[in-house]
Design a protein that fits this description.
Elements: H1 2-45, H2 74-86, H3 98-101, H4 110-127, H5 130-154, H6 163-192, H7 197-224, H8 232-263, H9 270-275, H10 283-289, H11 297-323, H12 328-336, H13 340-346, H14 348-363, E1 371-372, H15 384-396, E2 404-409, H16 417-432, E3 437-445, E4 451-458, H17 465-476, H18 478-485, E5 488-492, H19 494-528, H20 532-557, H21 562-565, E6 573-574, H22 577-605, H23 610-637, H24 648-677, H25 686-691, H26 700-720
Parallel strand pairs: 1-6
Antiparallel strand pairs: 2-4, 2-5, 3-4
Length: 721
């Protein structure tokens, strides 16, 4: 009986073990069934995903890098492409996306050099000699070359885009030539007025050099302010440009005077010397005015006496000329009554109307401005990036170039691979059912099983507005996806990042524009001590900037003149172009405003009637502003056909913007409005005049001190006599 009971207990124990094993087997079966179901669902999701086209002639692959491609050197990029191409069978050709083919090498091409050559021709026309034409270029090359070299050096430790050194080169060369031209032109004017060479160089540096310093710092501030937008690569771009401009300013006020000293009397052609009554070497000036540092006390007294006598004789001649109606101011006015400045001031209303109508007409397309970042479609036809983009689009759909990465995060305390995989499949199934989605496929799971990635392929390409709408829809339905899957969902990837950057820049543009406009008003108020001059200057800046936006939209978004400009695939405008354009044009517009209106203010302060002062001032500054405008347009236009496609719309926008600002605003709109305003252009409330600091950007104090010394010399001569 006992044996039977023991057998019964053993049997019961075996039965319980069997039941336990059965339960475990059932649980494993259920688990395997869930895994099988998940695998079947995942397989269904991948049915539309292809890495080899239908006829087996094209395959695509994705390479993940451990660091950003923008920080990779040209050698590293070449090593990657060479390794891949070298591993392919004979007859198989590989093309690569724009991310791996674009770098910061090969800065200057033939078209850029043509732009610099045009600038040199303009310098020869303005300055009248090959020696003087080469001087601003040499000064610009020294300053700009140093700046660009530093940008390249920093690219080894700072992530930079292909645009950073190109922008530094464009601004550095253009501004470097302009600033050196301003100082050189002032020196040339001084020596022709009889001022000794060394004194003329000092005066030019003290007056025009001060203008260069002030105008240049305005450009530096505008460029450095790009770092406040909140986009790291744009801040780097702005700081690279600002640093280069700082070095160009330094070269302009140091290298340029040194070169002028070396050039000596060759600053003026021999013919021009003779026309002004000097010898071919300008020796008459030296004998009458030059006081060497080693002169004895007797020689100094003799020379000062001769100088004072010459000034007294000159004063007598001026009085006689005044009685005859030929006083120098009258002669200056007679000269100013010729040329474009005179024409504009004779027809101010018509000129204002023409300028405003043209600029507003050009600005209309800006209402359709759409921002984005370039993709392979924007690269030159035949390039490997362009070929890769179109081959992928034709064989796998345009959306294959615009994958959207969905990040699925599990809230579980103890996540498992199976749970992570199931959550990724749940999210993928939900997203795959949305409009505009071709496939949504789980891609990978993190090592801690807390995060899974799902690759979403849209129907349209990265620059298509429908892709932007899909990203917006995904974010709008984020909560629904999370509720359906029990996970936390987010969206990232290059396509999403590009859209986010464009949205951020679009939102920052009005704020940045407002800051720049206020800054423009304040700077002009300080410089010219007037209410209406700053208002007109700011309006002109708005007109030229918006017109530039419109022109860019017409060419690069609508495709007008696409064949000529090499725009084979019109699309969204480079996202950071508008805000960059605002910053650069602001600095240049302030430069040109100072160059041309300061002459008008100087003439008005000398006693010219307000309307006459406009023409006299234009005669003084109009030539320089026109030459500077042509030079900047030439330098910028040289980059319209650059080998780096992203640079092309930047070159076009800057060239067009400078042309509008220099030729329609500063040399047409501003003189016409100043003519209409008359003396009211210089109105400033007394209370404001008392509190405003005196900003001497034209070296007025230096001129006043020199004039006082001349008067003191005449008084001493009278006392001696």
């Amino acid at each position: 009986m006992a044996d039977q009971i023991e057998q019964l207990e053993d049997g019961q124990s075996q039965l319980e073990q069997g039941e336990a094993q059965l339960r475990d087997s059932r649980q494993e079966l259920e688990s395997r069934s869930e895994e099988l179901s998940t695998a079947q669902r995942q397989t269904a999701l991948t049915e539309e995903q292809r890495f080899v086209n239908e006829d087996g002639t094209v395959a695509r692959g994705v390479v993940d890098f451990s660091e950003s491609t923008t920080s990779m050197s040209a050698e590293e990029r070449d090593h990657v492409t060479s390794a891949i191409s070298g591993a392919l069978p004979a007859g198989v050709v590989a093309d690569y996306s724009v991310e791996i083919t674009q770098d910061v090498s090969g800065l200057v091409g033939s078209t850029e050099l043509i732009g610099i050559a045009v600038a040199a021709v303009v310098l020869f026309i303005v300055l009248g000699s090959i020696v003087m034409a080469g001087l601003p270029v040499v000064s610009a090359v020294i300053g700009c070359g140093t700046g660009v070299a530093l940008v390249y050096a920093l690219s080894s430790v700072v992530d930079m885009t292909a645009t950073d050194p190109v922008l530094a080169l464009m601004l550095g060369m253009g501004l470097g030539i302009d600033y050196a031209l301003l100082i050189t032109h002032r020196h040339r004017t001084n020596v022709l007025d009889g001022i000794p060479l060394r004194e003329s160089i000092a005066r030019a540096t003290g007056t025009a050099g001060t203008s260069v310093l002030f105008a240049g710092l305005t450009n530096v501030i505008a460029l450095a302010a790009l770092a406040t937008v909140g986009i790291p690569f744009l801040g780097t771009m702005g700081l690279a440009g600002a640093g280069t401009v700082m070095l160009v300013i330094l070269a302009s006020v140091t290298v340029t005077p040194a070169l002028l000293s070396l050039v000596g009397h060759r600053a003026v052609p021999a013919k021009k010397w003779r026309e002004r009554g000097f010898t071919e070497n300008g020796e008459k000036v030296a004998r009458q005015r030059e006081v060497g540092p080693a002169a004895s006390a007797g020689e100094l007294a003799s020379r000062m006496s001769a100088r004072a006598q010459a000034q007294r004789i000159e004063a007598d001649v001026r009085r006689e000329a005044l009685a005859a109606g030929n006083e120098p101011e009258a002669l200056a006015l007679a000269r100013a009554n010729k040329g474009w400045g005179a024409f504009v001031t004779q027809h101010p209303i018509a000129m204002i109307a023409v300028a405003v109508v043209v600029l507003l007409a050009l600005a209309l397309p800006a209402m359709q401005l759409r921002l984005g970042l370039p993709d392979g479609a924007a690269e030159p036809p035949g390039s490997t990036a362009n070929t890769a983009y179109h081959v992928v689009s034709e064989n796998f759909g345009a959306g294959a170039n615009a994958p959207i990465v969905t990040m699925v995060s599990l809230p579980d305390e103890s996540p498992t691979r199976e749970r992570a995989n199931a959550a990724a499949v749940d999210a993928a199934e939900y997203i795959a059912g949305m409009d505009g989605v071709v496939t949504a496929v789980p891609a990978t799971i993190s090592d801690d099983f807390r995060t899974a990635l799902v690759t979403v392929t849209p129907e349209t390409g990265p620059a298509d507005s429908r892709t932007e709408e899909l990203v917006k829809d995904l974010r709008d339905q984020r909560e629904e996806i999370q509720d359906a899957t029990g996970t936390d969902v987010g969206f990232t990837g290059q396509t999403v990042a590009n859209i986010d950057i464009s949205d951020t820049l679009n939102a920052a543009l009005p704020v940045y524009m407002a800051i720049v406009l206020v800054l423009c008003l304040v700077i002009m108020l300080l410089v010219f001590r007037s209410i209406w001059v700053p208002v007109m200057a700011t309006l002109g800046f708005i007109f030229s900037t918006v017109a530039s936006f419109g022109a860019v939209v017409m060419v690069y978004q609508m495709g007008w003149g696409a064949d000529f400009f090499g725009v084979h695939d019109p699309g969204p405008i480079l996202a950071f172009l508008p805000i960059l354009l605002v910053g650069v044009l602001f600095g240049l517009s302030v430069d040109y405003q100072i160059f041309i209106v300061s002459g008008m203010r100087e003439a008005y302060m000398r006693g010219f009637e307000a309307h006459d002062a406009v023409r006299v001032g234009y005669r003084q500054g109009g030539t320089v502003v026109t030459a500077c405008g042509v030079i900047m347009v030439s330098v910028f236009a040289g980059f319209i056909f650059a080998h780096v496609s992203v640079v092309r719309p930047i070159g076009f926008a800057l060239a067009f913007g400078v042309a509008m600002d220099a030729f329609l605003i500063r040399t047409t709109f501003i003189p016409a409005t100043m003519q209409l305003l008359g003396k009211h252009a210089w109105w400033l409330p007394r209370w404001l005049d008392r509190i405003l600091p005196n900003v001497d950007v034209e070296g007025e104090k230096l001129n006043e001190r020199l004039a006082a010394e001349d008067r003191k010399g005449r008084e001493m001569l009278v006392e001696t006599v």
